[in-house]
User: Fold these one by one.
Assistant:
Number 1:
Amino acid sequence: MPDSTQHAAKILIEALPYIQRFHGKTIVIKYGGNAMIDDALKESFARDVVMMKAVGMNPVVVHGGGPQISGTLARVGKTTEFIDGLRVTDAETMEVVEMVLGGLVNKEIVSLINSHGGKAVGLSGKDGDMIRARKLSSGKPDVDYGHVGEVESINSSLVETLEAERFIPVIAPIGSGSDGVTYNINADSVAGALASKLTAEKLVLMTNTSGVLDKQGRLLTGLTAEQIDHYKQDGTIQGGMLPKVDCALQAVQAGVKTSHIIDGRVNHALLLEVLTDKGVGTLIRS
Ligand SMILES: Nc1ncnc2c1ncn2[C@@H]1O[C@H](COP(=O)(O)OP(=O)(O)O)[C@@H](O)[C@H]1O
Ligand SMILES: CC(=O)N[C@@H](CCC(=O)OP(=O)(O)O)C(=O)O
């Protein structure tokens, strides 16, 4: 056998148990804005999602786009502020967030997946009344996040219908309040809540670090609830990593089998995580 055929056969043999184990199972993937760095990586992500669907898994994509929102705000001369990893969102910022996430970023991902042979459908949490949100309180008297929301409830019937028809849902993290107000929700939180609602097999959060790192920059390959608490208190975990570990933990506590924080800057990181036993990031257990 030529070397390349042997190599492909070896990969397939390694992947087979995972393909069987995850057949028909839902895997919620959070694709962070920081992992959408260049065209080659975006292509690799789209190929991985299509491949997962082709072998019988049900990938559901929730995307971010924080850097893309910040870029557009800067172009229109608007400053933006993050507190504990969340963007303080006034009414004008909310309009930009909805345009960038629900429009540009969502449709770019849908097009990429479709150009690789998938059948992606782009949605925001408003479609099918999927994400009911309420205003998020900062818990501090002097901090008002504005239009930042938290998930109140999820109606997953639209996602389930799409999955059953072999579509790949691609969801922008925007929700409506019962008061009709539009809310900007951190994409990690939406992915976690959706994974819990769907009792997904896995929640995979793709970001721009090799996983959760300790103070010396070493990868923490596994984290429990107690360790997360400890690393939050001593400041090891901060900023954008805070909503990530919180929702990853909530998801496993709600019945999702495993949550993973992985490096979206690595080619085919998603397939490596799902189809091999090479741990490529941080695994979070309840
Ligand atoms: N302990 C930690 N390990 C890794 N990254 C951390 C840690 N604490 C804070 N961070 C920060 O969290 C960032 C990831 O969050 P964020 O920028 O919101 O990414 P994304 O756009 O993928 O959601 C990392 O780039 C890093 O700056
Ligand atoms: C409330 C809040 O912070 N919302 C995020 C939504 C997008 C997001 O989560 O994007 P990433 O995953 O790329 O960071 C924001 O406005 O940036």
Note: Residues 32-34, 64-66, 69, 86-87, 97, 148, 173, 184, 186-187, 240 surround N-acetyl-L-glutamyl 5-phosphate (ligand 2) (CB under 6 Å).
Number 2:
Amino acid sequence: MEQLIIRGGQRLNGEVTISGAKNAALPLLCAALLTDEPVTLHNVPRLHDVQTMLALLHHMGVATRHDAGNTAHLHAGRLGEPEAPYALVRSMRASILALGPLMARIGYAKVALPGGCAIGSRPVDQHIRGLQAMGAETVVEHGNIIATLPRGVQRLRGARITTDMVTVTGTENLLMAAALAEGETILANAAQEPEIVDLAEMLIAMGAQIEGHGTGRIRIQGVARLHGCEHSVVADRIEAGTFLCAVAATGGEVLLHKARGKHLGAVLEKLRDMGVGIECLDDGIRISSPGAASGQLQAQSFRTTEYPGFPTDMQAQFMALNCVAQGTSTITETIFENRFMHVGELQRLGAHIQADGKVAVVEGGSRLSGAAVNSTDLRASASLVIAGLVAEGETCVGELHHLDRGYDDIESKLRGLGADIRRSSHGGHCA
Ligand SMILES: CC(=O)N[C@H]1[C@@H](OP(=O)(O)OP(=O)(O)OC[C@H]2O[C@@H](n3ccc(=O)[nH]c3=O)[C@H](O)[C@@H]2O)O[C@H](CO)[C@@H](O)[C@@H]1O
Ligand SMILES: C=C(OP(=O)(O)O)C(=O)O
């Protein structure tokens, strides 16, 4: 079983390049299902989730190739077996993103219901309800959502859809479905994340007519056909945020190439309030954290909310940072009901945190000490890496399949900044 072995205490210095965003790449790859022409996607990160999505698309009859230069070539000329089986969906919930494009392109989809996962129950009722409003008939049978069009109906039809809550992949699924539907669709209460904007920009490059992406109301005029395109995946704001928290905690000065400050507003504000130096450049972010060494970082309270609020995908990493900053902070998780599983593992490293329901109270100023810990979900694993980088002695982080879902070679990138971190299948000295 592989582990990351980290010897804490090194400052991070230098330059790192942020990869393409997982949460943008996954819907963009699915958008290739909307056309029978070739699609070329640049800056596609090398992640397990991307491999799983390519395997899923291949299973459906899409020709796929992810080349060494991080460009993915996709061609959904003829769709063979448009099914997303549970084996693939279970390992990656974003498989649900095949539902909208398949319904739009061929009027049939069979996608396994994702079920619950480590961070919460995560239903997909809004995806299904939206497609029903566009004329789809759906049943859930043997654990699969089977969606069809009524006899004699060729295409989904545009609709006005107000989701009960803001849902990121729900908005993406309905946006892709609406792009090929007949007539106009209004998505009200739409998610505004940068990944939605990236998807809309790719769809527009394919010939879709979309307005209002990046706001809570997206207007789509369906077209009969979409064509192929070439598009580049936006930089990963969560990977960038993870590096920012790591540098803030360890101290040092790092330039994050390609990171976009405007996508990280809420996180950058908290870092600045904490006492960290942040400079947003045209094509990157520079961070310096001299206060880390002298114990001058001030812990920050925050609530996770939809974009542009503080992202739930940054909650665990910022919690690790708050553990070593000074003062008491309160962290409220409002998006997922079970996203504090890293608390127990951070406690093993010496953190003082009390979690009760949606709220965790962190007593800062902890002197962390290395230990064996296990990842419980993707961002939890990143929080343990950050804690390991500041902990005294050796930290061994296990269950790396969570980390590998969403970080493109994080250990090489951290090593390039001076961290003492390596991957080993033999384990370290941690008990
Ligand atoms: C691949 C991808 O982009 N994943 C991101 C996406 O997940 P994902 O799109 O799955 O998250 P949603 O935005 O849909 O979830 C927001 C909330 O709405 C609830 N909900 C959602 C849909 C639905 O039909 N019914 C329902 O009840 C969820 O359980 C959750 O409590 O947005 C999350 C919130 O920013 C991020 O943490 C994930 O990293
Ligand atoms: C929760 C996440 O991803 P997913 O929706 O793929 O589980 C994440 O990226 O932090």
Note: Residues 22-23, 93-94, 313, 378-379, 406 surround phosphoenolpyruvate (ligand 2) (CB under 6 Å).
